[in-house]
Amino acid sequence: MNQLAADNDISGRADLTVVLRRFYAAAFADRRIGPFFTEIAGTDLEVHLPRIADFWERALFRTADYGRDAFGPHAALHAARAMTAEDFGRWVQLWNAAVDGLHRGPNAERAKATGERIALALHKRLAGPDPALLHRKDDARGFVPLAALELRSPA
């Protein structure tokens, strides 16, 4: 671990912007999830970055306004090419690596936990309930994709 990660927590938008640039550089280049950003969505990072920084600043610090529909763009991507539990798992791995490479502290941990919750919620909403669980006598409708068990890197 570098000295920066050992000493600095995420303290505001400037830190988030650096983490986001690091994350998107890795995500765009990733063989598994890169095409969602580069080929399907055609993400222009300079346009997207202020919006996603608002999202994360709101999620972590409640200091920015974010009134956009976060689900809609993901639903459009999913309609173009289904996003799997493994895709969301890879997103979480890259997000955690971007955060861990720069920061350590309560806000960094909250950013990683929030990313994982968002990935699981988006996947659940996009994939819908597991049909095998809908027919159980106890009517359990729980949802735990297999990839959720593998989101974290081995310690």
Mean pLDDT: 80
Q: Oligomerization state of this entry?
A: single chain
Class from helix and strand fractions: mainly alpha
Strand content: under 5%
Radius of gyration: 16 Å
Order of helices and strands: HHHHHHHH
Give the low-confidence spans.
Answer: 1-6, 132-155
**DSSP, total strands:** 0
Structure annotation, total helices: 8
Helix content: 55-70%
Could you say which overall geometry the principal axes of the C-alpha atoms support?
globular
Distance between the termini: 14 Å
Topology summary:
Elements: H1 3-7, H2 13-29, H3 34-40, H4 45-61, H5 71-80, H6 85-100, H7 106-127, H8 131-134
Helix pairs in contact: 2-3, 2-4, 2-6, 6-7
Q: How would you describe the overall organization of this protein?
A:
- The chain is mostly helical.
- 63% of the residues lie in helices and 0% in strands.
- It is built from eight helices and no strands.
- It has helices spanning 3-7, 13-29, 34-40, 45-61, 71-80, 85-100, 106-127, 131-134.
- The two termini are 14 Å apart.
- The model is unreliable at 1-6 and 132-155 (pLDDT under 50).
List keywords for this structure.
155 residues, mainly alpha, 8 helices, 63% helix, globular, disordered N terminus, disordered C terminus
Write a brief caption for the model.
The protein is mainly alpha-helical and 155 residues long. It is 63% helix and 0% strand. It is globular.
